[in-house]
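Fold description:
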Amino acid sequence: MKDQESKKTIRKYAFASFLNDLGSDMIYPIWPLFVTSLGANMTILGFIDGLGEAIVSISQALSGYVSDRIRKRKVFVWLGYICASLSRIGYAFSTAWQQVVPFRILDRAGKIRSAPRDAIIADLSTHENRGGNFGFLRTMDNLGAVCGILICIFFVELLGYERLFLLAALPSIAAVLLILSLGKEKKPADKKLYQRIRLRDFDRNFKLFLGVSAVFAMGSFSYSFLLIYAKKLGFQIVFVPVLYLIFTAFAAISSLPFGKLSDRIGRKALMAVSFILWGGVCLIFIFVENYLAIVLSFVLYGLHRGAIDTVQKTFVSELAPEDYRASGLGGFQMVIGLCALPASLIAGLLWDRISINAPFYLSLVLTVTASIILLFVNERREGAII
């Protein structure tokens, strides 16, 4: 009976995530085109995207810590969806890139939902199904994204930016209502007080994994660069959202299989696979300049996102102490998010001042470095480190 209740709760959180991503991805396929249409160059675009990810990192770290501290999770989830909805209304009325910045901050601050929600999923799972459950969550995320992209493709010319962004605000409001329908959150049976946790309280493997993720994140710049590259290569503006759809669709269909695969072969092996896939993307952008190869690169990028987005959270939730999962997940997101600001900013500077291939060369070097560090990370299986 308890297992059935857990599955039902996980499904509701996953469907709420589907709704929010439905709204988000009405915007994201045209985001770089929208920002550059307001007068931003690639350096500014990289700064805005990187700033957004830095805000994600701070908001997730704080929400994870506070969630563990007060022993509540759900409130952060529905508040995060409200922030996302309000930000899209703000985008709709922005007429210069400077006006976009505060709403981008609000949008990314809505990620306060992620660490507490992921902790809920981890707590409702066992080692045998945790990867699969996170994979299911990512699948619903990405399916929502696919639906949002299709709406964007078919309606952006008809509606224009303003009305499309206003429409995108509605699914997140529906997600808020769904989360609130779950009823009052159950108090944990364990009444012990939250003890302040510091980085030194985490073990060597957790710290090493943070190092791996940080190094990789420094070279994992925003998807905006891939879309703008494709546009410069000759893809029509109307086809750019289709490229976004391709990688999101492949992320959607691969997340659950990759999650289940990580339950079988281990988290570290799947992390290595995700790094190889990203390396393939970089190599294509550096050495091949034809339409078919670019389409293939977006397929590989989608598979990379399906693998890494699933396995990273699973890995962190198992390496962090059980009582501090939200803090561990939030701290992890803080590290990679703080790396994302310089990553996208540096990529923009390299693009504008050296060449459009320069960011991909740097990313390859950092990916190889992260792969080497990953060799020294051990996994946790049923309470043991292997």
Summary: The longest helix spans residues 130-168. The domain at 2-180+199-385 is CATH 1.20.1250.20 (Growth Hormone; Chain: A;).
